[in-house]
């Protein structure tokens, strides 16, 4: 006797569109919404930040490295570590390259192997997408408070290793999904100062019927308002900028000098041709650097220092803590040189080797340098196009704003970010080795994948996405 199987009671799967087809139009509509949003007029953001600063106690004072509470130089290595073994450490790195004016060096570097979350929550109000931004204190910010993502937390933070308060709104980015994920990608951070550091960059949208409880340190802004604020010095923090750069593309351009496959092929060649030897070494063995009671610094006074701070912050998960910070010497310059080719703006990208990258090379702006670190070298050994970025032709600068770098690990780290329009006499169609032309759309497509576009290039892309600059 044959027994037939009972029919399955499971419903047939329902196929969904692979992408949210109307998202680009909705982002463009939000980018066009300037002046005012649900919570604030753009002109009132300064007053709101000042109000939040008055509502909490913030204090940052320098402390000698040897007196940092909870931190010490480890026996045997000299690495600067936290007593829990968590958060991060300052170690040494030895680098040897196969080409370039400087072929080898050693340096301290921040090692933070855990992956954090940088997440922005989106919601539609009156038919316009808004983004929940936070007035966040970071000890390294020159002006203390800047606009940050909804969630900006390391794994140690959101797993409450510090035994502090829970991270607000974290539930929208972890655990059971409470909204639609529009972006979720691992991206690197500063490859010269971090060793293989990566964070999840996330955009999650909740429905109009979802109540995200309001908090006094958060506000809803349109993408256009954020774009207006990106024209201001030291206002939108690095973590917000990198997440915005990972938003799905707002604008598209139909053509490019290279096809996407040709650009990918060029970049693959750049990644594969570099002969690089990178080794972690004990901080005690780093040559050319001195370690004192107060600071770790280069013998020539260049590059950066490792310093200590004691922090009080009334609106953080922990109200008091000590930590080391990396303090750059001087202000950096970060610039995309661009020109119109066939009527389409093209950016001159640099396949840049940075010692802390997971994959050695990422796509960077045309110029990314601290000028003071190169002045001791002859002009021919300095980065290409550096002088053009430092002294651009009159009337060719389309964007010039000073932005802070990551304030949780770097002290007063700032770079002047620029878009500079050029012509064939300054930037030929056949650029030098290691450089190539790409449209903003091509770079945007690559931000959907991790470890292709570096954090400085993502900052400049965010300015295009939010309408802070028109090329």
From TrEMBL:
<feature type="domain" description="dTDP-4-dehydro-6-deoxy-alpha-D-glucopyranose 2,3-dehydratase">
    <location>
        <begin position="43"/>
        <end position="246"/>
    </location>
</feature>
<dbReference type="InterPro" id="IPR038153">
    <property type="entry name" value="EvaA-like_sf"/>
</dbReference>
<protein>
    <submittedName>
        <fullName>NDP-hexose 2,3-dehydratase family protein</fullName>
    </submittedName>
</protein>
<dbReference type="InterPro" id="IPR005212">
    <property type="entry name" value="EvaA-like"/>
</dbReference>
<dbReference type="Pfam" id="PF03559">
    <property type="entry name" value="Hexose_dehydrat"/>
</dbReference>
<feature type="domain" description="dTDP-4-dehydro-6-deoxy-alpha-D-glucopyranose 2,3-dehydratase">
    <location>
        <begin position="261"/>
        <end position="464"/>
    </location>
</feature>
């Amino acid at each position: 006797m044959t027994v037939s199987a009972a029919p399955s009671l499971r419903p047939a799967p329902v196929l969904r569109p692979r992408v949210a087809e109307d998202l680009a139009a909705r982002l463009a509509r939000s980018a066009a919404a300037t002046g005012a949003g649900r919570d604030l007029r753009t002109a009132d953001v300064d007053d709101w930040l000042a109000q939040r600063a008055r509502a909490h106690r913030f204090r940052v004072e320098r402390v000698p490295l040897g007196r940092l509470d909870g931190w010490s130089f480890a026996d045997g290595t000299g690495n600067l570590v936290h007593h829990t073994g968590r958060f991060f450490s300052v170690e040494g790195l030895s680098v040897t390259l196969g080409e370039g004016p400087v072929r080898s060096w050693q340096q301290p570097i921040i090692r933070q192997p855990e992956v954090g979350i940088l997440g922005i929550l989106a919601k539609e109000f009156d038919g316009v997408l808004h983004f929940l931004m936070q007035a966040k204190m970071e000890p390294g910010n020159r002006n203390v408070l800047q606009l940050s993502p909804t969630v900006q937390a390391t794994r140690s933070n959101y797993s409450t290793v510090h035994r502090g308060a829970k991270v607000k709104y974290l539930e929208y980015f972890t655990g059971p999904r409470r909204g639609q994920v529009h972006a979720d990608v691992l991206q690197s951070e500063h490859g010269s100062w971090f060793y293989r550091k990566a964070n999840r960059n996330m955009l999650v949208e909740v429905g109009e019927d979802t109540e995200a409880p309001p908090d006094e340190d958060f506000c809803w802004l349109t993408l256009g308002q954020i774009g207006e604020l990106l024209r201001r010095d030291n206002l939108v923090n690095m973590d917000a900028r990198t997440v915005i750069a990972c938003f799905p593309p707002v604008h598209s351009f139909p053509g490019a000098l290279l096809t996407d496959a040709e650009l990918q092929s060029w970049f693959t060649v750049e990644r594969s041709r570099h002969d690089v030897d990178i080794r972690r070494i004990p901080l005690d063995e780093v040559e050319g650097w001195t370690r004192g009671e107060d600071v770790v610094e280069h013998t020539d006074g260049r590059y950066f220092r490792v310093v200590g701070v004691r922090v009080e912050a009334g609106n953080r998960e922990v109200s008091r803590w000590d930590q080391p910070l990396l303090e750059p010497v001087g202000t950096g310059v970060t610039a995309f040189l661009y020109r119109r080719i066939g009527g389409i703006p093209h950016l001159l990208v640099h396949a840049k080797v940075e010692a802390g990258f997971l994959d050695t090379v990422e796509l960077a702006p045309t110029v990314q340098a601290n000028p003071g670190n190169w002045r001791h070298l002859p002009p021919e050994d300095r980065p290409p196009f550096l002088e053009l970025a430092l002294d651009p032709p009159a009337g060719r600068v389309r964007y010039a704003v000073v932005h802070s770098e990551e304030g949780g690990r770097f002290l007063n780290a700032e770079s002047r970010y620029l878009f500079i329009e050029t012509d064939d006499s300054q930037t030929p169609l056949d650029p030098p080795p290691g450089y190539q032309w790409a449209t903003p759309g091509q770079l945007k497509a690559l931000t959907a994948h991790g470890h292709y576009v570096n954090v400085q290039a993502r900052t400049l892309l965010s300015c295009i996405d939010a309408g802070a600059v028109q090329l």
